[in-house]
Write a structure and sequence with these properties.
Largest sheet: 11 strands, mixed
Helix content: 25-40%
Shape: globular
Radius of gyration: 18 Å
Strand content: 25-35%
Number of helices: 8
Structural class: alpha/beta
């Protein structure tokens, strides 16, 4: 995980909690970027809460041509690659990002999608402090990915909502999240690359269903390479609404 900053769960009996470790990590990250803060990060830090963050083209297509909306939460089911793709756009443009609760997160794979590991904070196992750790990261970073340890209650989500809006930060939840701006779920997928009993899996073609709470983000089904044979995430064919796909299937 070259270039990343990471903390683990405190040992039993230790007085240093995962939250304390995350705060120390953020302090070191702040010192690291102090000499030369990128122009993009300065813009992200001072922009209005309703800003749009840059995204990969495939992600923009999923969101009806829009970027990630600052101050909002998004939820993703069925693909860590899709989670990483949402984070990759802002990261590649200079934003600091955090990943909480994903001990098997593939940093090198993330680098291949455009995530800058020098501006990535990892908290693999926050334990019971997960919500406080996420809140601390939201106060300091632009994009925070989290896999909650269980079902998130509306009360827990509301505790972070005000922080997200104040900072204009984006939360990407692995799994469900109450009040999500958009929900992205891999409905089905097919891997390619295997020969007759041999070979390597080289590409995954997935069907992603997107639903949102805004009228502009109607339920849609989108076909993506996740990733493609070249390792990139991109569209397979034009977006169709779910109703249109059903009409074509029966027509």
């Amino acid at each position: 995980m070259t270039g990343t900053s990471a903390v683990g769960r405190a040992r039993p009996g230790s007085q240093v909690t995962a939250l304390d470790q995350a705060r120390m990590l953020l302090a070191r990250a702040k010192e690291q970027k102090a000499p030369e803060v990128s122009r993009v990060q300065q813009a992200l830090d001072t922009a209005k809460a309703d800003r749009e963050l840059p995204t990969l083209p495939a992600v923009s297509e999923l969101l009806s041509g829009a970027g990630l909306r600052g101050g909002s939460a998004y939820s993703v089911r069925g693909s860590t690659a899709l989670v990483t793709a949402l984070m990759a756009g802002p990261s590649a443009e200079g934003a600091w990002c955090g990943v909480v609760g994903l001990p098997s997160f593939g940093a090198e794979s993330a680098r291949g999608l455009g995530v800058d590991l020098d501006r990535l904070v990892l908290v693999p196992d926050p334990g019971h402090d997960w919500l406080s750790v996420v809140a601390a990261l939201v106060d300091a970073l632009t994009v925070v990915v989290v896999r909650p340890p269980g079902e998130v209650t509306p009360g827990e989500a509301s505790r972070l909502a005000a922080r997200l809006r104040t900072r204009g930060a984006v939360l990407i939840a692995v799994g469900s999240w109450p009040g999500s701006e958009a929900r992205l779920e891999v409905e089905s997928s097919v891997w390619t690359g295997l020969g007759v009993g041999e070979g390597l899996l080289t590409a995954r073609q997935a069907t992603v269903v997107v639903t949102g709470r805004r009228a502009a983000v109607r339920p849609r089904r989108h076909h993506l390479w996740l990733p493609g044979p070249d390792g990139a995430i991109r569209s397979v064919e034009p977006v169709h609404s779910i109703g249109e796909w059903q009409e074509e299937a029966v027509g």
